[in-house]
Design goal:
alpha+beta, MetI-like fold, 31 strands
Length: 703
């Protein structure tokens, strides 16, 4: 058994270790380049072809295997060159600014065809979209653009210092087929000349790096653009910047080699604006280029000293650092699948193979507070999947651990007192003939399947408890009060009357009074709710305390799991109490102690190791429970001790997520981290319980 447990642990560790390995970057191949030095670079997802554009104005698509030109197209008449070029990997376009102030948006398409089992990539150069910002023909100093079938937006600073935006909208009448186009021009205030502009895909935010190293932001959405707002954080000037996938986070490199992360966050004033999130350590030289991945929040950094760095913005991990195979900071492209990066020098293109399967995994992401994109502050969040490709997985295990402990605490609060007190009464006070009926009946409760209990708790108990929660509150106070009064009344019966009643008749007396009391509480639920809670307890709770009432909550789970745990704790506790030597009990009674004094001062201390062990076994049963919490909690991974809210446990999360997790993915291996965590918690609790049990046995061994 020990070998089997160790084997399971080794298997879990083997599955988890790849999460914490650094990225591997290797030189894959290189190709010779001819023509003008490339200034912009794109690559297809299968890494068969790449497109380059230089200031000579010729777009060339080449094979990556040998550098041979496959497609070539000049954008301008012979002899005319470009003022500046750049690549937009998000929409697979090359952007070219002419010297007379026009901007060309050139789509690059890598069509995929299959002939049998052979995959063929057919690169194509689409028709450029031409946008003229200034009718007077002023040259563009810096520019950024995004285009779709309906809308094209460009922002540019002209040579005379003006910062302009142009939005061209294309519409088609579905009834007549008539196509209409409209243009909207705006001029934005700009305090300094811009060296680089960045525009997000939704065309709502514009960023600029000034010649003086300041980082500025304009909000373009709304009737009147807002800005500029100074975003620089730190003494060193900003030298490079890029938008990460989704365009909600900005990476800014500085002259001192540090890299900052900014993210769009909803502020207290209700306005979404960039906020500084975190920084990475310095690379030792000014940052010159930043190339983001189009698959996750990884980005490649080139510095002026020829160094390369690979980072992940959310986890804060430095994945790899090394020297660039290209002499100077050069145009770069991240492969769409995130498995390679291309660096284009003046005469040579180099492909770097990247092995970086789990960049978002780190101990801090699993157990620490992380400031995710769009969140107002750092938090513990579990959200493994999303609706869009740019979704950022949030894999904090802390809410799951919290939910596990919450479920265990609420179930044991109900189960331990009932089970232990029932065991004391059964073992020490109940008539032997009743013991033969009661004990097997309670132990039979353990045979009920968890899925049945979860089904009843989620679909039957939860809605009824929501409508009759005041009755539960009344029962909580009425049950012990009625029990005390029933005991007092039974003791006041004349001995002659009690002597004529059969043994164990007090059980029927107690049961009848409790049944009447509980039925009365159920009948009073409506009047009490109307009197104390305005007729609607969930609404009263929300208005008075601010706490939401969720139908599937911790109380429902506590009752259902308590029902499942009670038989285990009861059976083991009753065995421990029944195992106390009879001579100890007889000696105590012979010395004048009554039955209750004997139980409290002799039986309980002697049986305490066994009762403690029973409680720990129940703890282990509760902490590993899956089906009840899966069906009765709502599976909301939140951290809240509110008894009227739901939660998600480690075991339930494993049951929910593992069927949908791709084998070998970060989510898949993270679930193994959750399994190790559950294994470790159970091991630690059981070890501590055994130590306490041994100490109790040593302490009360003299009895």
């Amino acid at each position: 058994m020990i070998a089997s447990i160790l084997g399971i642990l080794v298997f879990l560790v083997v599955e988890v270790l790849p999460l914490f390995t650094n990225a591997r970057v290797e030189l894959a191949r290189s190709a010779q380049l001819t023509g003008a030095p490339p200034e912009a670079l794109l690559v297809d997802e299968h890494r068969t072809h790449f497109a380059v554009l230089g200031l000579d104005g010729v777009v060339r698509i080449r094979r990556l295997a040998d550098g041979a030109t496959v497609v070539e197209r000049p954008l301008l008449p012979d002899g005319e060159g470009l003022g500046a070029v750049r690549a937009s990997a998000a929409d697979s376009r090359l952007l070219a600014a002419t010297r007379d102030g026009r901007l060309l948006l050139v789509p690059i398409r890598f069509a995929i065809e299959f002939r049998g089992d052979e995959r063929l990539v057919s690169p194509r150069i689409g028709e450029p979209v031409v946008l003229a910002l200034d009718p007077a023909g002023s040259a563009l100093r810096a520019f950024a653009a995004h285009a779709s079938e309906e809308t094209s937006t460009v922002a540019a600073q002209l040579a005379d210092g003006r910062l302009l935006t142009l939005r061209r909208t294309r519409g088609e009448n579905f009834m007549t087929g008539e196509v209409t186009e409209s243009e909207e021009r705006r001029e934005l205030p700009s305090p300094v000349p811009a060296r680089e502009l960045l525009l997000d895909q939704e065309q709502r935010n514009l960023y600029a790096i000034g010649e003086d190293g300041r980082l500025l932001w304009w909000r373009l959405s709304g009737s009147a653009p807002a800005g500029p707002v100074l975003l620089s954080y730190g003494p060193a000037p900003v030298t490079a910047a890029a938008l990460l996938i989704g365009d909600r986070s900005l990476v800014a490199g500085r002259a001192d080699g540090t890299v900052d992360i900014w993210s769009q966050v909803l502020g207290e004033d209700g306005v979404i604006a960039p906020r500084y999130i975190r920084s990475f350590p310095s690379q030792g030289a000014p940052i010159r280029r930043i190339t983001p991945s189009q698959r996750n929040r990884t980005f490649l950094v080139q510095d002026a000293g020829g160094g390369l760095g690979l980072y992940h913005s959310t986890s804060g991990r430095t994945l790899w650092r090394g020297e660039s195979p290209v002499a100077a900071p050069s145009p770069a492209a991240y492969a769409p699948k995130g498995d390679a990066a291309l660096l284009a020098g003046a005469e040579q293109l180099v492909e770097l193979a990247l092995e970086n399967p789990h960049p978002e995994s780190a101990l801090s992401t699993f157990f620490g507070k992380i400031h995710y994109e769009g969140h107002e502050e750092a938090a513990f969040v579990w959200q493994s999947t999303g609706a869009t490709d740019d979704f950022e997985p949030k894999l904090s295990l802390t809410p799951l651990l919290f939910g596990t402990l919450k479920a265990t605490v609420y179930s044991l609060v109900i189960a331990v007192p009932l089970a232990v007190l029932a065991a004391i009464y059964t073992a020490q006070f109940m008539h032997p003939r009743l013991q033969k009926v009661v004990k097997p009946t309670i132990e039979t409760m353990a045979s009920l399947p968890s899925v049945v209990l979860g089904f009843l708790a989620g679909l039957w108990l939860a809605p009824r408890l929501e409508g009759a929660f005041p009755a539960l509150l009344l029962m909580f106070f009425a049950a012990p009060l009625v029990s005390i009064l029933a005991g007092a009344a039974w003791n006041r019966l004349p001995a002659l009357v009690r002597g004529r009643l059969p043994e164990g008749a007090e059980i029927g007396w107690y049961g009848a009074l409790l049944a009447v009391a509980l039925a009365t509480c159920a009948q009073l639920s409506g009047p009490v709710e109307a009197w104390l809670f305005g007729g609607d307890f969930p609404a009263w709770l929300r208005e008075i305390t601010g706490l939401p009432y969720e139908q599937r909550n911790a109380i429902v789970v506590g009752i259902a799991m308590g029902f499942a745990v009670i038989p285990i704790i009861f059976a083991l506790s009753e065995d421990a109490l029944s195992s106390v030597p009879k001579d100890l009990v007889a000696g105590s009674l012979a010395l004048g102690a009554d039955r209750w004094q004997t139980v409290v001062r002799v039986v309980l201390p002697t049986a305490s190791p066994g009762i403690f062990s029973a409680t720990m076994v129940g703890f282990g049963r509760a902490i590993g429970e899956t089906m009840i919490v899966l069906m009765a909690t709502g599976n909301t991974p939140i951290m809240d001790w509110n008894p009227f809210s739901g939660f998600r446990t480690l075991s339930a999360n494993l049951a929910v997520e593992i069927p949908e997790a791709p084998v070998g993915s970060t989510l898949y291996r993270t679930l193994f981290v959750a399994a190790i965590l559950l294994f470790a918690v159970t091991f630690v609790i059981n070890t501590a319980a055994e130590l306490v049990r041994q100490r109790l046995r040593t302490r009360y061994a003299r009895l």
